[in-house]
C-alpha cells in the first residue's frame, strides 16, 4: 500500500511549482518586454520563442513514459528543473546578444527556449503524476489549489523582487538577476523534493510490463475516457488562453483605460482566479468521499459560468464605457479558477484509471494538450481580432465577436466535461456491480 502524501509534503511539492513559476515568469514576461522595448525587436520574435517553448511540450507523453519506466519520479523532476534553470540563464544571455549579433542571439534564444519547454514539460509532468499517485482522493482539490497557488506566488514574488533588482537596468544586470533566480529556483526545487518519495512511486504488483513508448501511447489513446478528457482539456484551455493577449487592448480601446489601469484589470482577473480555486478546494474538501462528483460538477458548471462571464465581457463592446467591465472580468476569473482546479483534480483521479503503469503517459498527454492549446490560444485570439477588424472596419465589433466565439468554446467545453463525468460515473457504477449485473449493464 502506497502511503498518501502529508499536507507538509504537498506544500513541498508546491515549492517546486513555485520554482518553476519563478523562472517561467522572467523568461516569458520580463525578457519579452526587453526584446521589444529596450532592444526594439518586433513583438513576433518573443512571440515565436514563447510558442517554441510550448510546442516542444508535445513530447510530454514521452517524458511521462520515461518516468513510468523508472521506480521514482524525483530524478525526472530534478533533471527537468536543471534544464529549465539552464534555459532561463541562457535566455537572458541570448536576449543581450540579440542587441549586437541578432542571428547568434536568435539561435541561442531558440535553444534556450527549447530547454525551458523541455524543463517545464519533464518536471511538470512527473510532478503532477506524483501528486496523482500519492494524494489521498479526499485531498485532491485542496492539494491542486495549494500547488497552483504557490506557482502563482512564484510569479508574483519573482516579478516584484527581480523587478527591483533590475533597477537601474543594464544588460549585465539582466543576466546576473536571471541567472541568480534560475540557480535559486533550482536549489529550492531540489531541497523541496528530496525525500518526498521514500519508497517506489508504484507498488511492484501495480507495475505494467515495460513496453516501447509507441505501444504505451497507443494503449493510452485507445482508452475512451482518456481520449475524451484530452479533447476537453484542449478546448477549455484554448478558450481560457485566447483572451489573454486581447483583454487589456480591449479595455484600452472601449473603456479608455491607461496601461496602468488595464494592468490592474488583469490583476483583478487573477484575483478572481485565485478566489475560484479556493472556492472549489473548500467545496471539494467538505465533500469528503464525494469529492470526485463535486469536482466534476465544478468542472462542468465552471465552464458554463466562464462562457456566461465571457459574454458579459463581450457586452462591454456593445453597451460601451458605461458597462460594468470590472465585475464581469472578476466573474470570469472566478469561473476560470473554479473549472481549472476541478479539471486538475479530475485529472489526478483519472490518471490512475485504465492500464496500470501508464500514469505518466496519461498526465503527459493532458499536459501536451494544454501546451498546444496555450500556444494556439494567444495566436488565434489576436489573429481573429485582426481579421475581424479588417472585415468590420472597426476594432470594437471585432473584439466583441471574438469574445463571443470564446464564450461558445467554453459552452462546448462544458458539454465535453459533462460527457466525461457521465462516462466516469457509469464506469464507477459498473465496477461496483456483481459480475452478473455487469453483464446485464453492458448488454443494455
CATH architecture of the largest domain: Up-down Bundle
Number of strands: 0
Query: Overall 3D geometry?
Result: globular
Text of the CATH class of the largest domain: Mainly Alpha
Within CATH, the superfamily of the largest domain carries the name: MFS general substrate transporter like domains
Number of domains: 2
**Termini separation:** 36 Å
Instruction: Round the Cα radius of gyration to an integer and report it.
Output: 22 Å
SS summary, helix count? 16
**Runs with pLDDT <50, length 5+?**
200-205, 439-443
CATH topology category name of the largest domain:
Growth Hormone, Chain: A
Structural class: mainly alpha
Helix percent reads over 70%
SSE succession: HHHHHHHHHHHHHHHH
Largest sheet: none
Please tell me the overall pLDDT.
85
Our estimate of the beta-strand percent is: under 5%
